[in-house]
Write a structure and sequence with these properties.
GO terms for molecular function: acyltransferase activity, transferring groups other than amino-acyl groups. The chain is α+β, with helices and mostly antiparallel strands. The protein has 18 helices and 16 strands. The relative contact order is 0.18.
């Protein structure tokens, strides 16, 4: 008798997952190898430990698919995850040792960002996903070996994984890597219960607090800021939808981009302490809560980047018009504020966007203290309440077609800046085991591939803090803007150019 065919389990994604931009977030983790360790041994450990991690964290085995409208839900554009025991990602083996520099040479140079060519380091399958065919794997991995080291590319599909859940996935893999090497190395234990992978938790928590879907009139008349909190723009009318191009990160579908350049800056622990003290001094703004260290960093980056952008394009009305407003959009993990019913390790997506606005002239003026900017950032974050999150969730749940979602970030227009900060995620403290890796398996660097978003927008990513203090900031700007930023005396007080 032939064995029964195992059908995948199916999980409807919730509205927060459905409104996420549909693309892969790609990161490269670098490790030094111990002398004499064979690439094949490391590859076998990576594959075996990923299998073990998938047993504890089943989202690793999930793929995302489109769902056709049906009698239960007639709305198009919905997604579902399917999980199958035979779908554990295969760690793609890629030996670059014959053509790449030695690992230690790259480390001595600060791991130049221009070396991190995604065409070589990131598996091409990540760009060929088909939601109507084989689906998009939650996790795609490629192990790139060079002499003395490993550049491990991890691609996570954004509809399933955000910053928090992605960091937990990596920590689980690191834990399993240690187990397979019999190396406990004193690392903190990590246990994630099965209910953390339940996408129904968010809508159940929302409904449990008495929330209801907005009426058609409420949906149509919802204010822009409620959509902005979701990281979205209000839906367009059917007529306007037909006249616009869909959101895409495919360079072939974008307008010819400007000449871009990327710089990695380093902020030392001493400089960050100085910045935090300067930016959190009291002001007369009336803000009750003092700014956080992250607010201080966002204020410095926002002010100095916008100053460079305005100086590079002084006639642009976005900066020069009377009353021109600068907008700062920063990511906010909503787990704690949304509901106490959610587990701390909820493995879906629950990202909101905090928007701060200041007049461009005031933001970049030497007469405006950095503390004033930091307090303005904190004031904007503090306006985000549970009721606001729930109201925005209701808009997401009432979307008539998730595939028509619009986002304000993939553009070079206007005076908007979108920053992502991983300061609260201690990913550089993960240990992948000391049998094959140097340093007990600590990650030496965590970086995105080079020039990923250059065709569609500027980019600012604050990378995770290093165990000894300090952190890196990746910035992609127009070439003339970057030259001005690197010469900015205020910025240079706190951030040093590490590499390009």
């Amino acid at each position: 008798m032939p064995s029964a065919i195992v059908q995948p389990q199916r999980f409807a994604l919730n509205p927060m997952d459905n409104v996420m931009p549909r693309f892969y977030a790609n990161f490269i983790l670098t490790f030094g190898l111990k002398p004499g360790v064979e690439f094949s041994e490391v590859h076998s450990l990576l594959q075996a430990s990923l299998e073990t991690a998938a047993n504890e964290l089943p989202i690793i085995r999930r793929r995302v698919f489109s769902v056709a409208p049906d009698d239960t839900d007639p709305n198009p554009g919905r997604l579902e995850a399917r999980e199958h025991p035979g779908w554990t990602p295969q760690v793609i083996y890629n030996d670059l040792s014959a053509s790449w520099p030695d690992y230690d040479d790259l480390m001595d140079e600060g791991l130049p960002q221009d070396t991190l060519d995604g065409a070589q380091l990131v598996p091409s399958v990540h760009a060929k996903w088909d939601l109507d065919g084989e689906g998009a794997s939650a996790c795609i991995v490629q192990a790139n070996f060079i002499e003395g080291g490993l550049l491990l590319s991890v691609c996570l599909f954004h509809s399933l994984v955000d910053g928090m859940s992605g960091s937990l996935l990596l920590k689980m893999w690191a834990k399993c890597m240690r187990q397979h090497q019999n190396d406990d190395s004193g690392a903190a234990s990590l246990a994630i219960t099965p209910d953390c992978c339940n996408y129904d938790l968010v809508p159940e928590a929302w409904a449990a607090e008495g929330n209801k879907l907005p009426s058609p009139e409420e949906f149509a008349n919802s204010d822009d800021d409620a959509w902005r909190l979701l990281g979205m723009l209000p839906p367009l009318s059917p007529e306007k939808l037909r006249a616009r191009a869909a959101f895409s990160l495919d360079p072939s579908k974008a307008q010819p981009p400007p000449e871009m350049t990327t710089t990695i800056f380093y902020v030392s622990a001493t400089a960050f302490t100085k910045l935090t003290a300067l930016a959190t001094t009291p002001t007369d703004s009336g803000v009750s809560a003092p700014p956080t260290a992250n607010d201080a960093l966002m204020a410095l980056l926002w002010r100095c980047i916008m100053r460079a952008r305005a100086a590079a394009d002084p006639a642009n009305p976005a900066y020069a018009a009377r009353g021109a407003l600068a907008e700062l959009d920063t990511t906010l993990d909503g787990r704690l504020l949304f509901s106490e019913r959610l587990p701390w390790a909820y493995m879906g997506t629950l990202i909101f966007i905090a928007t701060t606005r200041m007049a461009v002239t005031s933001l970049i003026s030497p007469a405006t203290s950095l503390a004033t900017v930091a307090h303005t950032v904190r004031s904007a974050v503090d306006t985000i309440t549970r009721s606001r999150l729930h109201a925005s969730y209701g808009l997401a749940a009432a979307m008539p077609d998730f595939s028509e979602a619009r986002y304000p970030f993939a553009t070079f227009e206007g005076a908007e800046a979108c920053f992502t900060s991983f300061l609260g995620l201690p990913l550089m403290e993960m240990r992948f085991g000391g049998k094959v890796f140097r340093n007990g398996g600590l990650v030496d660097h965590l970086r995105p591939p080079r020039r990923e978003f250059d065709a569609v927008c500027r980019r600012c990513v604050v990378l995770p803090p290093r165990p000894a203090g300090g952190f890196e900031v990746l910035l992609s700007l127009k070439r003339e803007e970057m030259a001005l930023l690197e010469a900015d005396k205020e910025f240079a007080q706190f951030a040093q150019v590490l590499c390009h």
